[in-house]
Amino acid sequence: MLLDAAQPRTAIVTRPRHSFLENRAISDFNTGSRWVLVKSGNGGPVRLLVVEDDDVFRQFIRAVLTKAGRTGRPISATIVGSLQEALQALTVNRPDCVLLDLGLPDSQGLATLEVLLRSAPGVPVVVLTGAEEDQLADQALLAGAQDFLEKALLKPDSLGRSLRHALDRSGWAAQINAKNRQLEDRNRDLDDFAHAVSHDLKAPLRAAFHLVGQAQEELAEGDADRARQTLAAVEPRIRRLFDMIDGILNITTAGRSSDLVPIDLGSLVRDVLDSLSLPPGFRVHVAPDLPIVLGARASLAQVFQNLIDNAVKHHPRPSGRIDIRWRDTPRAHEICVCDDGAGIPVHQRESVFELFQTLGNEGSTGIGLALVRKVALSAGGDVVIEDNPGGGICFRVIWPKAGQGPVLPTSQQGPQLAA
What we know:
Elements: E1 10-14, H1 18-30, E2 46-51, H2 55-71, E3 75-80, H3 83-92, E4 97-101, E5 103-104, E6 107-108, H4 110-119, E7 125-129, H5 134-142, E8 145-148, H6 156-200, H7 202-220, H8 224-232, H9 234-253, E9 261-264, H10 265-275, E10 282-286, E11 292-295, H11 297-313, E12 320-328, E13 332-339, H12 368-378, E14 382-387, E15 393-400
Parallel strand pairs: 1-7, 1-8, 2-3, 2-4, 4-7, 10-12
Antiparallel strand pairs: 5-6, 9-11, 12-13, 13-15, 14-15
Helix pairs in contact: 1-2, 7-8, 7-9, 10-11, 11-12
């Protein structure tokens, strides 16, 4: 189980005298007492990184972890003897918890803890230090520690309790951080909704209100034919208002689905094309090897539906070509939807993603591209606009690979995709 806490917490244990520790280890493990480091669950082994250069204490730790693995979740421990080795180990496999000695050959004191916390943010750390160092323990607490134990008084159950509490608190912190991020997203949605209701939705209502008033005046003058024509102009404005309300609902709920499944993008794009009524003059070329990505199928379908519809709706000619292609990057799949239309001026390429921005197209609600970016951002990716080498525009959807986390926009990186 990989834990992610914004503020790691730490416990401190002090170095014992060797003969005393050896006798304690023998005594503790001959008593037959049972204790659990981490409660059993469906997760895999607990990944523990031990940074300790003392051979005797390393043997003690091995014995403790071996016994703990029999009564709780299995433990996979990596044991290194220096800070440099620890930093190298962190680049290979992120641990669930770290046991860190503050007296290493290449680093001493609180600086050791600070370096490791910077290198492994979110990983709980149990710090091992020398005896009679209460001041150092207090400093470690201020730096983010949550508890400390003296090695000379250490027993298997106390070490297990310390590690278990570190893992528990780290998990709780990760859950709190995730909830906070969700609340921030909800607040932004509420702000967008309030803006839409107070400003953008008033425009079609105001127009319909004035047209109704005009029709009333025309009826009062006895001009029924002209009044009917005026009232006929109300209908498209009311229909646009309904579309905008539906769009707001789609925007505020986009990307919230927790049902993430592997999606064959090739199959999804074909389904989207079958559902659209494209003009006969448009051709859509789809790369035959589109990747499989992790996401919510309905949300991804909205992305491609809106991008393809946008390419057709804003094309200056009754016929055109749309290309859907992709490239692989270390952390993300990048899928491009390109057309040979008029393009978008550089200074307007960010504003098109704002809610209700239509760039002068009367037939558009200005919601589609805002929804596309919302879905991509919710997945930890983004959408950027680039020139199509063959003329027109490309919308590049950056979709993170599973387990990679958020990916920053890379609109200025890498070569253009070949046509």
